[in-house]
Structures are given as structure tokens and as C-alpha cells.
Amino acid sequence: MLKGRLGLETSRMPHADRHGLIWFERGELCVIDGCLHFFQGKDSLTPSSVQIPHQTASMILLGPGSTVTHDALRLLARHGTLMAAVGEDGVRCYTAPPLMPDRSDIARRQAELWGSPRRRISVARHMYALRLGEVLPHRDLDTLRGIEGSRVKATYQLMAQRYGIEWKGRHYDRANPNATDIPNQAINHAATAVQAAAAIAVQAVAAIPQLGFIHEDSGQSFVLDIADLFRESVTLQIAFKVAKKAETDSQTIDRLIRREAATVFRKQGVIPAMIDSIKKVIRMEEIDASSHDRNP
């Protein structure tokens, strides 16, 4: 017997066998002759379109200047292909409509770990270990947050010295994120860009954004958890590099951050790395190992 109601999930290619993400911008996602196409230059003398192998893609990212037809949405939903509306170069994630992914193992594993207080703190300690390079002995989340906070303060100072920037401490006004000095503005904008990448990664693996292990109140708690794993290696590197560049560049700090983030994301493969981190954090290898033991 096929798993699932009437075996319907087998009508789609499993996401594990697909080819990841496809990026498009400035055109129309539409259906031509029953196939998904991205059509560009509709009003120009040389319009062009490219056919999209949507059955073999996990997610389509639509950048600025893009539109999508109702028929295209129908086709994506039918084949279980995810879609997200993102900012230029993927440094913002505006929306990613849920399209009932064909797998639930990651979400079920996440919920299983989150639902047990003992295992939840174990995952949180694992996440701190990935960031700090050591396993802390403490099992109280507030204590772990305090230790992490002091380490981050020291990191800010070291990064400022590395890039030759005057650092006056971390200041952030949620009501007005631009009401501070350039280094703090750069951190704010870089954090937003990295959170967008984390949101794409969480959506791509069908994890549950609300079930965070360190962050708790936000509807994007797990997204923030994953973004924090890349704070030192990506967020702060982008922020302080751009803060230094802003001293001699007349462009806005937001624009400089977006361009630098796009370059870093592409060169370092940040979103694929985040997807790997999600699987590592929720210990999917334990599931794979147990399945192998049951099915030699």
C-alpha cells in the first residue's frame, strides 16, 4: 500500500530529489501551452520567455518587477512547488505562501523536540555551541542568553577594531531603527537581510517558523534562531565592512548593505548553509540512522 490518503503524495516528485531554488525578476510568471514560463520584455521589441522545470524545483523566488498569474499559482500548487516574493538579490523575504509541502518529517521532528522542555533546552544548548565554539554546562535559558550577550558585546568591539570603526556600543530603537550611528544602522539592516535568507531556508524545508528554541514570542522565532547562527560569520561581517565603506560612499546605508549582502549570500552559499544548519539543529541524522537500523 502507498503511504498517505490514496497515495496522492506520490504524484509529486519528492523535494529531496529536486534541484533547489530558481530566481527570477522583472517579468511575468505565467503558463504558456500548459507549461510554466517566465516571460520578460512584454512591451519591448524583443520579448523572451524561458520554460521552467517546475516539477524539479523546490522553490521559485520572484524578485522586484515580477508578476504572477492565477494559472501559474494553480500549476505550482498542483506540483507542490513553493514560491516566495523576495527583495532584490534575495535580501528581503516579503511572503512565501504555504503550498502544502510533500514532506512533514522536519516539521514533526521540530515539534517533537520543541514539545519536550528537556529536549528543547538541549537543542538551545546545541545552537549556542555552534555559535560559541563550545558546549556550555548551563541548562537555564536565561543564563545562556546572558553568556551569549556578553560574548556578542566583545565581538562587536573586536569587529570595530578590525575595520577601524569607532564603536560606542549597541543601540537599537525598534520604533526608529535609523535613529542611531552608522555602525548600528548597518547592523540593523544586515540583520534584516540575513533574517530574510533564514526565512527562505525555513520555508524551503517546511519547518515551523513559530517554534523557536531560543526565541519564543515572535511568530518568526525559528527564523530568528537560524539567523543568529550566522550573526558573527555573516551579519556582522557585512555590517562592519559596509559601515567602513559608508565613510567615503554617498549611497544610503540600506542600499550598501543590500548589495554587500547579495554578494556574500551568493559567494558563501548562505541559504544552502542555513538549510544544512536546520537539519543539524533538529538532528535529522538521528532519524536517518534509526530508519537505517530498522531497515538494514
Automatic annotation (TrEMBL):
Alphabetical list of Pfam families matching this protein: Cas_Cas1
Residues the record lists as binding Mn(2+): 148, 215, 228
MF terms in GO: endonuclease activity
InterPro entries xref list: Cas1, CRISPR-assoc_Cas1, CRISPR-assoc_Cas1_C, CRISPR-assoc_Cas1_ECOLI, CRISPR-assoc_Cas1_N
Superkingdom to which the source organism belongs: Bacteria
Keywords: Antiviral defense, DNA-binding, Endonuclease, Hydrolase, Magnesium, Manganese, Metal-binding, Nuclease
Gene3D superfamilies registered for this protein in UniProt: CRISPR-associated endonuclease Cas1, C-terminal domain, CRISPR-associated endonuclease Cas1, N-terminal domain
EC numbers for this chain: 3.1.-.-
KW DNA damage (keyword) present: no
Cofactor entry: Mg(2+); Mn(2+)
Family: Belongs to the CRISPR-associated endonuclease Cas1 family.
Quaternary organization: Homodimer, forms a heterotetramer with a Cas2 homodimer.
Role noted for this protein: CRISPR (clustered regularly interspaced short palindromic repeat), is an adaptive immune system that provides protection against mobile genetic elements (viruses, transposable elements and conjugative plasmids). CRISPR clusters contain spacers, sequences complementary to antecedent mobile elements, and target invading nucleic acids. CRISPR clusters are transcribed and processed into CRISPR RNA (crRNA). Acts as a dsDNA endonuclease. Involved in the integration of spacer DNA into the CRISPR cassette.
Protein name as it appears in the record: CRISPR-associated endonuclease Cas1
Protein's gene: cas1e
